[in-house]
Specification:
The protein has about 90 residues and is of the alpha+beta class. It is built from 3 helices and 4 strands. It has one domain: Alpha-Beta Plaits, CATH 3.30.70.1060.
């Protein structure tokens, strides 16, 4: 199943994101669960959050993946929304 994570960074957390980006990308690659993902950007092009679509067995598996993400472990996110998702276009 596909599960979408919408993660919003804490204000002023650019340094946390930068310091943990390589570990986050490695985690995404190593787990093999990421179907698609990328950062949200503000008007100046700064990263302000993440949209991640996982291919996992359950929403619970997505929650476990999210908890293991180096960004989450570093305290980057102000909020994380996790919902089952169905692709219908594209």
């Amino acid at each position: 199943m596909k599960v979408v994570l919408i993660c919003r960074d804490k204000p002023g957390a650019h340094e946390i994101r930068a310091a943990n980006r390589d570990a986050h990308l490695a985690y995404a690659a190593e787990t093999g669960a990421v179907w698609m993902g990328g950062p949200f950007l503000d008007a100046e092009g700064n990263m302000t959050g993440s949209l991640i679509i996982l291919e996992v067995e359950s929403v619970e598996a997505a929650k476990a993946w999210s908890a293991g993400d180096p960004y989450a472990k570093a305290g980057l996110f102000e909020s994380v929304t996790i919902d089952a998702w169905k692709k219908t276009v594209g």
